[in-house]
Specification:
The complex is a heterodimer of chains A (166) and B (765).
Chain A lengths: L2 E8 L2 E8 L4 H9 L17 E4 L2 E4 L12 E3 L1 H7 L7 H8 L9 H14 L5 H7 L11 H16 L6
Parallel strand pairs in A: 1-5
Antiparallel strand pairs in A: 1-2, 3-4, 3-5
Helix pairs in contact in A: 3-6
Chain B lengths: L14 H5 L15 E7 L5 E7 L1 H4 L4 E5 L21 E2 L5 E7 L2 H10 L1 E6 L6 H5 L20 E5 L2 H7 L2 E8 L12 E7 L4 E6 L4 H12 L6 E5 L11 H17 L3 E4 L2 H7 L2 E2 L2 E9 L5 E13 L5 H11 L8 E10 L5 E2 L6 H18 L4 H8 L21 H11 L2 H8 L6 E13 L10 E7 L5 E5 L8 H13 L6 E2 L19 H28 L6 E4 L2 E4 L2 E7 H11 L4 E6 L6 E2 L4 E2 L5 E13 L4 E14 L4 H21 L4 E2 L2 E2 L17 E8 L15 H4 L1 H13 L10 H6 L10
Parallel strand pairs in B: 1-12, 10-11, 13-17, 15-16, 20-21, 29-32
Antiparallel strand pairs in B: 1-5, 2-4, 2-6, 3-5, 7-16, 8-14, 9-10, 9-12, 14-15, 18-28, 19-20, 19-25, 22-23, 23-24, 26-27, 28-29, 30-31
Helix pairs in contact in B: 6-7, 10-11, 10-19, 14-15, 17-19
Classes of the chains: A alpha+beta (166), B alpha+beta (765).
Chain lengths: 166, 765
């Protein structure tokens, strides 16, 4: 397999790596950088377990070839934890715990990142907007109700805390 | 009684790692020098294997070997006739024929594509009727009648002939359900790691029942049980599914790991997972019911057949549960039920959340609505007339009302009132046009734990360390349901300590004795009881020691908020940490292994009369739907679910089970069906096999009903499966009202609602 060099920013750090050209962004994150919080669930862009933010937008990283990520910024669940220095967890993560929105946890990193993208563009989403934002992230355990409640709770916390969201 | 941890909303103890992405699932594990393996699956549902051509695959760069049945050093038969790799013939499309072992993922995959197998196709048994036909092809030589291993169960109560003779009206109906996929988000993954010069093996992975897998893996290697250790990874959902497939993958990986003395990893693609793993069995129920003019049911005679598939481990157990519950939570004097399972050359039935009950409840609760209609009665009134109440006996003749609560009649009344059932039903009956609403009721009872299915014993090991921190482990697994948290709550409550002190590792078969599988909604009720016993034993040692130190009788001491003190003088006491240090100093071991063993159920297995279960969990569900008869589209608008849980140990976890159960039940009710044609599985990924998304799920209302039930720890009883089993029936009843047409098959999808049948893909070709 032909190899290509990719240069991108992952979790606020510039990196470059030479990898097989047929690798997906998912493979680069998991195998290239051991960022295993990004999960493979279906490989066809249906389940959302591999969701990461690419240039700020949620994408199924199983549908992105590494070449398509060239020069772009990627945020994974590992970056979300580290980015928030003051507290250990991002408010969204804390809200998922508070609301019991996690069972097996396999969909959780993708759910959190899709929710983050939503809150960045809409600080006060309604239930329907939240459901739409996470409709590409399948969960087989929770029935989504406590996840929706967690996103609402995080939105409330973030509103109280003022304008930060990163 | 007031509690600090029980019956509260407590954040689960294992969420930090999950929400940060640090939790390690099977596919996340890496070991040095690790190999990768892929299974070559059958191309036919039923065929003799003539030759397996491996040369081309072995020529692929990076491929080390292609293993076949001959390479399995030990026993190549697992429980239920499953093979590690099949040798003589293939019996279903997911049968494993060979295993390609390679240096990397890509090479293993290329090798998998390069293996060619020559088959001699055999006649295919596709359906229950095919399997039972007089000249049906035989799938397993050991079972010439195609009836699955030990799958026949009978229940006989009263005299069904006499009951039918007394009836004013006799009604017969048939119901049929579909194959349903677990669709856990995490596809299966295992890594087998050889150790100690090749004489020991540890297997990590997404394994629901580590002791089964350990036994099968040791068997495949021809080793003693203690040479194989299973250490569970974090599991990305299982719902009963990561069982047979986990055993086979673990055995395959271990055989390869032993051969090359290197770690071997197998990770299934979603397509492989859906092909190889078990499904919820299709069941067919033929009911014959005798009724009095006033609507009293006097007798029921039922023949039940499960479709077991190409191999089967579970039909014998699902069918036993089914035989106890076939006639539902109704007071009947005369019952004759006969259940069996049949082999077919299809994907196979296994354990899936409910273990025959979602199928069973769909059938009996559809039947109840149909009987009510035939008798010109309201469905609520008809159920209330026949439902089990205190003073009645269950189908297996267990008395209700004293040790076993029977709150179902009140629960029905509550859920009916909360949903304005009668007003809506009346209003919807006046509707005209294509788009109509409907409302439907379904109820259930569920035998809690394993009961007469198997010995319901399990153990817990609780160990207080020198600094007061605690290790707690059982043989049961955290699958996301919240088992670790519920157990930690029970331990912390009993010991009067902070829950944050408790560390609860995943199951490791070298540490804890075989406590049976994590099935039958037994985690909180049975596992929790073992935890309570272990904590009680440790607590007794602490009170005895504190009694010596405080010069007081232990029974006059209390252990609360990390302090042991005199009941009549709370100032005189000793801190938990100080007591733990003292125990260490004087050699008192604050560690206990407790074993909860209820003994075999007192049940006659020939007629299934006796104590089938220690207690029952009850449920009543109302579904509200919108049906577009132009398209066949069913929108589930609201589900209201009332569940008797005994005591809710953790409120959030209980709600999580109920909400998740609603979504999974909705899936079975309206969306999900594994479609097979000529034995081939057509729905192999989540783009074709649709499970509910956040936009699909209905409004949900949970009603937690708490009853005084002494059997479980702090009164807890089963919920996980009860939470998911009633909804398909309630939805089907609501759809019947909205559409005016009764569907006796699931799911209520576009084709069935619009046309009354499934479209075949061949129709369009």
């Amino acid at each position: 397999m032909k190899e290509i060099e990719v240069n991108l920013t992952i979790n606020h750090k510039k990196v470059s790596r030479t990898v097989p050209a047929n690798w997906r962004l998912l493979d680069l994150l998991r195998e290239g950088f051991s960022l295993t919080g990004c999960k493979e669930g279906c490989g066809v862009g249906e389940c959302g377990a591999c969701t990461v933010l690419l240039a700020g937008e949620p994408v199924n990283s199983c549908l992105v070839l590494v070449g398509q990520a060239e020069g772009k910024e990627v945020l994974t669940i590992e970056g979300l934890t580290a980015a928030n220095k003051e507290e250990e967890l991002h408010p969204l993560q804390q809200a998922f715990i508070e609301k019991g929105a996690i069972q097996c946890g396999y969909c959780t990193p993708g759910m959190v990142l899709s929710s983050l993208a939503l809150l960045r563009r809409n600080a006060e989403p309604g239930v329907k907007e939240i459901k739409e934002a996470i409709s590409g992230n399948l969960c087989r355990c929770t029935g989504y109700k406590q996840i929706v409640e967690a996103v609402q709770l995080a939105a409330d916390w973030l509103k109280e805390d003022g304008d930060y969201i990163e | 009684m007031s509690f600090k941890y029980i019956n509260k909303k407590i954040n689960k103890i294992d969420l930090q790692e999950k929400v940060t992405g640090k939790a390690e699932y099977g596919a996340d594990l890496e070991f040095e020098n690790m190999l990768y393996a892929c299974t070559v699956y059958s191309e036919y549902p039923h065929a003799e294997i003539v030759e397996i051509n491996t040369a081309e695959a072995e020529a692929v760069a990076g491929v080390l070997a292609v293993l076949t049945a001959e390479d399995v050093p030990g026993e190549n038969q697992l429980f239920g006739h499953f093979r590690v790799l099949t040798g003589d013939k293939v019996r279903y499309p997911g049968d494993g024929v060979a295993l390609v072992v390679a240096e990397n993922r890509q090479a293993a995959w290329e090798g998998q594509q390069a293996v060619s197998v020559e088959y001699n196709p055999l006649p295919v048994v596709e359906t229950i009727d095919d399997a039972l036909a007089e000249d049906a092809p035989v799938i397993h030589a050991e079972h010439p009648d195609n009836v699955a291993l030990n799958s026949r169960h009978n229940l006989r109560k009263g005299d069904v002939k006499k009951g039918m003779a007394e009836a004013d009206k006799i009604i017969e109906r048939t119901y049929q359900t579909q194959f349903v996929e677990h669709a856990y988000l995490e596809p299966e993954a295992v890594v087998a790691v050889p150790d100690y010069g090749g004489e020991r093996m540890t297997v990590y992975g997404s394994i629901q029942n580590p002791f089964y897998v350990r036994d099968h893996t040791a068997g495949a290697l021809g080793w003693a049980l203690n040479q194989v250790t299973i250490e569970q990874s974090v599991i990305g959902g299982t719902f009963g599914g990561k069982d047979e497939v986990a055993s086979r993958l673990s055995a395959r990986a271990a055989v390869a790991a032993q051969k090359f003395n290197r770690p071997v990893k197998i990770v299934l693609s979603r397509e492989e997972s859906m092909l190889e793993s078990s499904k919820r069995h299709p069941y067919r129920f033929n009911y014959k019911v005798g009724l009095k003019e006033d609507g009293e049911i006097v007798a029921m005679e039922t023949e039940v057949i499960a479709q077991s598939g190409g191999y089967n481990k579970q039909s014998q157990f699902t069918n036993w549960r089914c035989v106890i519950h076939t006639t539902g939570p109704y007071a009947l004097d005369h019952i004759k039920t006969s259940v069996k399972g049949v082999y077919t050359n299809t994907i196979y039935g296994g354990a899936m959340r409910g273990f025959s009950s979602p199928q069973n409840i769909f059938a009996i609760e559809s039947l109840m609505d149909e009987l009510a209609e035939e008798m010109d009665m309201d469905p609520v009134e008809f159920r209330l007339k026949n439902v089990l109440r205190p003073g009645d006996t269950t189908p297996s003749s267990q008395p209700l009302g004293e040790e076993i609560p029977a709150p179902l009649a009140e629960m029905i009344e509550e859920v009916v009132e909360k949903t304005d059932f009668h007003q809506k039903r009346e209003k919807y009956s006046q509707q005209e046009g294509e788009i109509c609403k409907g409302i439907g009721l379904a109820v259930s009872f569920r035998g809690a734990g394993l009961g007469g299915e198997a010995l319901d014993a399990t153990g817990a090991l609780l160990s207080i360390q020198g600094d007061g921190s605690v290790n707690l482990i059982t043989g049961l697994s955290e699958n996301g349901q919240g088992l670790k948290t519920a157990h930690a709550q029970i331990a912390a409550e009993t010991l009067g300590i902070d829950i944050g002190r408790i560390n609860y590792p995943n199951v490791n078969t070298a540490i804890i004795p075989d406590g049976g599988p994590t099935v039958a909604s037994r985690g909180a009720m049975i596992g929790g009881r073992a935890v309570k016993m272990a904590a009680d034993k440790v607590k007794k040692k602490m009170l005895d020691l504190a009694g010596e130190l405080l010069e007081e009788k232990p029974e006059n001491l209390l252990l609360e908020n990390e302090r042991i003190f005199k009941k009549d003088n709370i100032e005189q006491g000793i801190s938990y940490e100080k007591l733990v240090q003292e125990a260490k100093a004087v050699g008192v071991l604050l560690t206990e292994l407790a074993w909860f063993n209820p003994g075999p159920a007192r049940l006659n297995h020939d007629n299934n009369q006796g104590e089938a279960f220690p207690t029952y969990a009850w449920a009543a569900v109302v579904a509200e739907v919108l049906v577009d008869q132009g398209t066949g589209m069913v929108e589930v608008e609201k589900l209201t679910a009332a569940h008797d849980v005994g005591t809710a140990i953790n409120i959030d976890a209980v709600l999580g089970q109920i909400y998740g159960g609603i979504a999974m039940g909705q899936g079975m009710g309206v969306l999900e069906e594994v479609v097979t044609e000529e034995g081939k599985v057509e729905t192999l990924n989540l783009d074709e096999y649709l499970i509910p998304t956040a936009l699909d799920v209905p409004e949900m209302e949970a009603i937690i009903v708490e009853t005084a039930d002494e059997y479980g720890p702090y009164g807890a009883k089963s919920l996980g499966e009860a939470a998911c089993e009633v909804h398909p029936a309630a939805i089907a009843n609501a759809v019947a009202q909205a559409s005016g047409r009764r569907l006796r098959e699931l799911p209520c999808n576009l084709e069935r609602v619009k046309l009354g049948r499934m479209l075949s893909r061949k129709d369009g070709k």
